[in-house]
Structures are given as C-alpha cells and as structure tokens.
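Attaching the record inline, Q. Sequence:
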Amino acid sequence: MSNVSGLSDLQAITYGDPSVKIAVLDGPVDIKHACFNSSAESSVSGTSAAVNPSASDGLALRHGTAVYSLIFGKQGSIVEGIAPGCTGLVIPIYSEDANGNFSSASQVRLAGAIKIALEKGANIINISGGQFSKYGDSEFLLKQAIDDCYKAGVLIIAAAGNDGCNCLHVPAADRRVLAVGSMDENGNPTPETNFGPNYQV
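Structure, as predicted:
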C-alpha cells in the first residue's frame, strides 16, 4: 500500500477513527488472521445468515479476508491497511457450498445487504460485486437501496468488474456510486478491469 499516492501523507495525520464505520460486502472474513487488530472481532457483525451463507473455507473466504485486510490490516503486520482505525462491518455476499461451488448475491440480495449496512450505521459501503446491465440500470430494489444511501450521505464504492470490457456493471455504473477498477504497479489499468464512460461520471 506504500506506493498509493498520498496515502502516507494521510496516514501521518490519521489511520481512521472508530466513529467511521466501513461495511465490506464481499466474502466472509477470517477475522482471526494475524494482520487484524485483536480487538477487531468485537467491531465486526457477521450477518451471513441474512445474506449469503458459506459452507466452505475457499475462494469466498480468501477474497473477503484479502479485501478486508486492505482496509483494516494493522500497522506492522504482513498487510498494512488504509484505515485500520475505523470500525469494520462484515456482510458476506459471496458464498460457497460444501463442494466449493462459488456464488454471488443477486441484485435483490445485494440490495438487502446494503440496507443491513445502512441500518447498522455504515458511513461507507464497499462492494466487491455486481452484475452486467445492458443499459446500466439496477433492478428496482437495488436502485432503491442506492437511493436510500445517497439520501443518507453514505458513500457506496463498487467494483467495475473484471471482464476487461467496455461494459456496464451495476451497481458501479450508477452515477451515485464510486466505481473502482484495478491497476498494475505502474498505475496502468490491468487488462481484466472493466472500463467505460459511465464509470467516470
């Protein structure tokens, strides 16, 4: 994370504040991983039964733990996060069954996960998921959940997708959502990241 522009200047001022709650909508998280603060477990709410349960310790768990560590990894650990001083909220939207079959939440279940985050006081909602949309429009319940967050002043950050195309991926394509893609160590977009003008509005 040390090569992220401006991050060291920001962390010279703060590593985040416990009053700021960041909800991570991803896979389940191994909160006992060595990179997390020992007190982190008390600030994490597991709501997998209400969204997407996981019966496996495979890809869903690894992805959720990796994304969570980028935010909450403690300083001096093997993964130093951006804002380990903030409060974390885990809401799994990826799951696997006992055979390792991977699935992501539908737009309806994603809307439910966003509403859970909003009800639990999230200030920022990070979503590592979404679905293709021909015109960039979300289904009604997801659009409503995004609207509720917008009115409440809650920032939604969502992945543009990893299909390497000029295509629309919701909720990232929504103008009220901050879309993110991936880049290499030189700051160039990776071949697999989605792109397009909708993500730049």
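The radius of gyration is 16 Å. The first strand starts at residue 21 and ends at 26.

More tomorrow.
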